């Protein structure tokens, strides 16, 4: 078993947002979507973002990804301003968007082929290792439509991991899945993360998913999304189904629910 990556190195800031704000409409009177966001994410840290629908979670992620330029403040990755998507930052979206005419293995290898025109036998070995770890090896030669939604989403995660990004941005990656599959794939993600430590920014609608997975949780207010709190998740790792039944898990989810559903009541 690899290193346990909850020992984040607070001296190494991989992602930094300073006074970040954004509005899509540049008109001076148009409302801000997100505002005054300050956040440092450290090496191998798993940070989740929760908040009401429309508060700007995806907007935040897109700015870190280099897909959107903030109208205020600065976003940097490895101390460099983000100006465009970077190879060392992987993204997993809500839908895996697999290519239906390629097998699972070829889908996973596709970004390498697309980028470099080819992939090596070492890449194939690594693809197989990751597929094995994600419980997908027996489906490697199947076509995507032969897989369940949960499996397809796992393929999307493996595809992102094959590029070996230092930072993984995940935008509601499990939201299309049923509750049981979602919980299982969350545990699978934690296993993969333990074996291949990454710095993760994870957007979710699910408070319990955020608590189960992350080291810290950024709780956003309703639009314009600001930081309501940054909560330290002091639950031991590895997290298991016992974690979900622990009193502290319930306390943390209650604190966050309080922020989101009764934002004016002090918790
Ligand atoms: N490309 C765009 N152009 C204009 N407005 C946009 C654009 N993308 C998002 N918005 C608006 O910005 C606000 C924040 O959207 P965003 O998707 O970031 O929120 P979210 O918190 O991720 O929402 P949800 O939880 O529902 O997925 C919303 O009001 C949305 O309508």
TrEMBL record:
<keyword id="KW-0547">Nucleotide-binding</keyword>
<dbReference type="InterPro" id="IPR017871">
    <property type="entry name" value="ABC_transporter-like_CS"/>
</dbReference>
<keyword id="KW-0067">ATP-binding</keyword>
<feature type="domain" description="ABC transporter">
    <location>
        <begin position="15"/>
        <end position="247"/>
    </location>
</feature>
<dbReference type="InterPro" id="IPR027417">
    <property type="entry name" value="P-loop_NTPase"/>
</dbReference>
<keyword id="KW-0813">Transport</keyword>
<dbReference type="GO" id="GO:0005524">
    <property type="term" value="F:ATP binding"/>
</dbReference>
<comment type="similarity">
    <text>Belongs to the ABC transporter superfamily.</text>
</comment>
<dbReference type="Pfam" id="PF00005">
    <property type="entry name" value="ABC_tran"/>
</dbReference>
<dbReference type="InterPro" id="IPR050166">
    <property type="entry name" value="ABC_transporter_ATP-bind"/>
</dbReference>
<dbReference type="InterPro" id="IPR003593">
    <property type="entry name" value="AAA+_ATPase"/>
</dbReference>
<protein>
    <submittedName>
        <fullName>ABC transporter ATP-binding protein</fullName>
    </submittedName>
</protein>
<dbReference type="InterPro" id="IPR003439">
    <property type="entry name" value="ABC_transporter-like_ATP-bd"/>
</dbReference>
